[in-house]
Design a protein that fits this description.
The structure holds two protein chains of two kinds. Chain A is mainly α. In chain A, 68% of the residues lie in helices and 2% in strands. Chain A has one domain (1-495). Chain A contains 16 helices and two strands. A two-stranded antiparallel sheet of chain A has the order 1-2. In chain A, helix 2 (21-73) runs parallel beside helix 8. Chain A starts with 5 loop residues before the first helix and ends in a 6-residue tail after the last helix. Chain B is an all-alpha fold. Chain B has one domain. Chain B has 18 helices and two strands. A two-stranded antiparallel ribbon of chain B has the order 1-2. The longest helix of chain B has 45 residues, at 15-59. Classes of the chains: A mainly alpha, B mainly alpha. The interface between A and B is large, with 90 and 86 residues.
Chain lengths: 495, 464
């Protein structure tokens, strides 16, 4: 058969596939799963936006209440106000009032993948009230059973269920003809196995790609979960291509397995085992590799170190000595005021600085581990089509481990910014206390509530585009490699 | 028995069993031994730091009892011995709590935070291997039980020899079940035995837990063996049998569990933690203003019929701290109590969601029997909170009962610190686990019963 006749053969195969009830049943199930997944994703994104709005409202409420208290306590009254009740005291405000949040807003493509968002919160309250050891103390406890089973999101359907749908559509093509004896009939025609396989699997690929992309688009439209794509069109286009390449990888894998000529039972068994390896076993092995390449620093050792530092500070006169040394280093002119060493706010600032120094190594190790783990995860993800597509979806959705590691670092930097904002004000108030008025309960005069630095959130568009491009390249290479293997193996009909 | 022995000999000669068995045993052993090593390391660290914390608490300087309350300590949750087999909720819940004045701290530092996304792919523990891979192994062993014979024509021979179909089914099922016992049950018992023997398991009743746990896993594997044999009875070809069994596996083990997760979330939503925390903050805010504090101080003076704090028979600051804490405890009990109740309700809904998939039922049953379920976590959290309240109440009582005049500050020493006992957590008893396991066990039994019942007409209609 000439190459010119190939499109006719392809069309004929396409007609045959589209006439099969199984094809429509599989596509219908897939579209239903995509719609459900998009709807759960849209719900999750709405909840995240709600959490962000709640955090903003909380911040605004605190400022409003602080202003009201400032006004109330700024008038003479017989009432006694302690520092933890007094927003005119910079230390009191920083420690007991301020509601500053580091936030990780959802990207326009957040609906695609829950990623790590169910275990790593998008909102962190940055506070100075009680002792913490690490940046990532905050989390939202929820159902562990739900976390164990994982979310029914678009990434799950696209990464896990789409290959199974492809296997159901293409897994027994050629091999079932072989089992039924039809293959001999086909082989007796003037046509080689490459053209027949090309037409059969090409037709499946067209149907599967159209079904998956069309179904995903429909699901996104119906759920309304897609945000405004301002500037993210390129990432979305790359994702569409990566998804098509992922389908092509699995169709090519079916073609390779068909070229073994071992019959339908063996083909199905091999493909399902391959699916288990690629989507479950290999990622688990990669997780072990990431663990080995970037070992988790011991949280317990860090806690122990924090307690050693705390015990040291509170033993004998150590606290006073450390505070005096800190004060001398920070405000040399305070040497004239030895009473300041015992002021609770000065002692607290000195103590926190001492803790920060004592724990710097542990905190740095934890941050380095988070960043290194994410980096190794990105590097090793190319070894499995499932992990590379999953990572691309998560990065586009902004729910990947890399973004969270960066978010934790940004949160820690924000805490330092807040500290740098308050520290001079607290020291100034300690050195020269200036009440709002005589006889009024307000202790001091802090009122710069609106000047408190706010967190600058980021949307990692460049990282998402880069990761999606990487996924597209890897998946296309994988599909081409498998197609080349199949092409080589399908040189002749089986004996 | 002779027939079973013959089927067993046939099964043992099957290359599939050797391959599947080798892969399964290897997977289970590697994962189980890795978990055992991690558990031993964690237990060692927890033991060391717990002793150090106790020494720090007892060795702290003389100070005001409220300062000691703020100095506090950390407590750690020891792993259940069978967490080596099924870590259950442990990686998803914090196991370290900072005990300090005023704050019901969360249990922090979940293993899942450090593990990264790849670790959640599905084969991270022995239990996950059983839940996902063992059904596949059972299907690959059982799908050809009748379909392959039918295709080869040997089924006609077997039935023609006068063997009743029921007996034929029973002997083949028994042979395959024994094969599963060997490649699944034996490694599980071995790893579990090692965990029980090598770890501190006081109060866990680990041996009966282990046997019940292994029995549950085998019941689950049996359900899939029955499923594979059912499709083998019905399907005309081995290909059809395999395709149907694999489709059932995909639905029951891959898709349905996540659907169940979405369904439970929709029909039995838990309270959002941030809303709960917001309500707690609101509950505290109104109480801690200077005005509210002033009103309460005047109420105390009026209660004792005095006009000056120095005339009180108790220390005003200590009394007010004690009363403040009582108010805070009530807020915590109301809000966090409702939150934990909603999570427990969701866990119960998951047990019923096992009707969608035996994997969901097994997950719930397995973690309950292993002692790694949500109930054990909640028990830990509230036990720590009770311990924290005990410390706060004792410290506040010390201040309250030793009134200081003229702005003097009470200083206490080691005698008071020693009055606080070390934190010891008694796990929930096995009887409680058995009670909690009723629903998932019933659901799993329903799956077994349903599949066995569906096999009966297939056996009756068995034709070559």
């Amino acid at each position: 058969m000439s190459a010119a006749r190939f499109p006719h053969l392809l069309r004929a195969e396409l007609r045959l596939i589209l006439r099969e009830r199984l094809t429509w049943a599989i596509l219908a199930a897939l579209v239903a799963a995509l719609c459900l997944a998009a709807s759960t994703g849209a719900g999750r994104v709405a909840a995240e936006r709600g959490a962000l709005a709640q955090a903003a409202a909380d911040g605004a409420r605190v400022v409003h209440e602080a202003r009201a208290a400032h006004e109330r306590y700024g008038r003479p009254a017989p009432i006694k106000v302690n520092y933890w009740q007094d927003p005119t005291d910079a230390f009191g405000y920083m420690t007991y009032f301020m509601a500053a949040h580091a936030v990780k807003p959802p990207t326009p493509l957040a609906v695609l993948a829950a990623g790590q968002s169910d275990v790593q919160p998008a909102v962190m309250r940055v506070g100075f009230g009680y002792s913490t050891v690490f940046d990532d103390t905050a989390y939202e406890p929820g159902s562990a059973a739900k976390l164990r089973l994982g979310p029914f999101d678009l990434a799950f359907v696209l990464v896990y269920l789409v290959p199974l749908a492809v296997i159901a559509l293409a897994g027994t093509r050629l091999s079932s003809e072989q089992d039924r004896g039809i293959l001999r009939l086909i082989a007796s025609q003037p046509i080689g196995p490459r053209r027949v396989a090309g037409a059969k699997f090409g037709a499946v690929a067209l149907v599967a790609v159209a079904g998956v992309l069309g179904g995903t688009a429909l699901a996104l439209l119906v759920s309304g979960g897609l945000g405004s794509l301002d500037g993210w069109n390129g990432t979305l286009a790359l994702l569409v291509m990566a998804l098509a390449a992922y389908v092509a990888v699995w169709v090519a894998a079916c073609t390779v397995v068909a070229s073994f000529w071992r019959g339908a039972v063996a083909a199905l068994a091999i493909l399902v085992l391959a699916w288990v390896c690629v989507t479950v076993a290999l990622p688990t092995a990669l997780a072990l590799a990431v663990d080995a390449l970037s070992p988790v620093p011991s949280r317990i050792a860090a806690i122990d170190a924090s307690r050693r530092a705390q015990a040291h500070f509170y033993t004998g006169a150590e606290g006073s000595r450390i505070t005096a040394a800190w004060l001398a280093g920070t405000v040399p002119e305070a040497a004239r005021r030895p009473d300041l060493v015992e002021a609770p706010e000065i002692k607290r600032l000195a103590r926190d600085a001492f803790y920060d120094t004592a724990l710097a190594g542990y905190r740095d190790a934890a941050r380095a581990h988070a960043l290194a783990g994410a980096a190794w995860g990105r590097r090793l993800a190319v070894l499995s089509p499932a992990t590379i597509l999953g990572l691309a979806l998560e990065t586009a959705a902004g729910t990947d481990a890399g973004r969270h590691a960066a978010f934790l670092s940004a949160g820690a930097a924000y805490r330092r910014d807040l500290s740098a904002f308050f520290e001079p004000r607290i020291l100034a108030q300690a050195l020269e206390p200036r009440p709002v008025c005589d006889g009024c309960p307000a202790r001091l005069d802090f009122d710069a509530y609106d000047a408190v630095p706010s967190f600058a959130p980021s949307l990692p568009r460049a990282a998402a585009e880069r990761q999606t491009l990487m996924a597209l390249g890897s998946l296309m290479a994988g599909a081409l490699l498998l197609a080349a293997v199949a092409h080589r193996r399908l040189a002749e009909w089986p004996a | 028995m002779r027939r079973i022995a013959a089927e067993l000999a046939l099964t043992a000669r099957d290359a599939r069993l050797r391959w599947i068995g080798s892969v399964l045993v290897l997977l289970l052993l590697v994962t189980g031994l890795g978990a055992w090593r991690d558990a031993a390391r964690y237990a060692g660290e927890v033991g060391q730091v717990t002793a150090a914390e106790r020494a720090r608490w007892l060795g702290q300087d003389a100070k005001n009892p409220h300062s000691a309350d703020h100095f506090g300590l950390w407590v750690f949750r020891a792993s259940a011995p069978l967490a080596v087999l099924d870590p259950g909720t442990e990686p998803y819940t914090g196991r370290m709590v900072r005990v300090e004045a005023h704050v019901f701290n969360e249990a922090v530092y979940r293993a899942v935070q450090d593990a990264g996304p790849l670790a959640r792919s599905g084969l991270g523990s022995v239990a996950e291997i059983v839940q996902l891979v063992v059904p596949l192994a059972a299907i690959l062993l059982g799908f050809s039980a009748f379909a392959a014979d039918r295709k080869r024509g040997t089924l006609r021979l077997a039935l023609g020899n006068g063997v009743p179909p029921g007996r034929l089914f029973a002997s083949r099922f028994t042979a395959l079940f024994i094969a599963l016992l060997a490649v699944v049950g034996a490694p599980l018992l071995g790893i579990g035995g090692l965990a029980v023997v090598s770890q501190e398991g006081a109060g866990w009743q680990a041996v009966p837990r282990l046997f019940a746990w292994v029995a549950a896993q085998l019941a689950y594997a049996t359900a899939f063996l029955l499923l594979a044999m059912l499709v083998s009875l019905v399907a005309r070809t081995a290909r059809g049998a395999l395709a149907a069994a694999l489709a059932a596996w995909v639905v029951l083990c891959v898709a349905a569990p996540r659907l169940a997760s979405a369904g439970v979330d929709a029909f039995a939503p838990a309270l959002a933690y941030r809303d709960v925390r917001a309500r707690i903050d609101a509950g505290f805010r109104a109480h801690r203003t200077a005005e509210a504090n002033d009103v309460r101080a005047r109420e105390v003076l009026a209660r004792y019929g005095v006009s000056d704090a120095d005339e009180l028979p108790v220390d005003l600051r200590g009394l007010m701290m004690s009363e403040n804490e009582s108010h805070n405890f009530a807020v915590y009990d109301r809000e966090l109590g409702a939150f934990f109740d909603s999570l427990a309700a969701q866990e119960r809904a998951f047990a019923w969601a096992g009707l969608l998939s035996p994997r969901v039922a097994l997950q719930s049953l397995s973690q309950t029997l292993a002692g790694t379920d949500f109930a054990q976590h909640a028990h830990f959290v509230w036990a720590v909170e009770s311990y924290r309240r005990g410390i706060s109440e004792r410290m506040n009582a010390e201040i309250r009962d030793h009134p200081q005049r003229g702005g003097a500050v009470l200083v206490a020493g080691p005698d008071l610190w020693r009055e606080i006992p070390p934190f010891v957590l008694q796990p929930l008893p096995f009887a409680r686990a058995l009670a909690d396991a009723r629903v998932p066990a019933l659901v799993l039994a329903l799956w077994l019963g349903l599949l066995a019942a569906l096999c009966i007409p297939g056996i009756r209609r068995l034709r070559p």
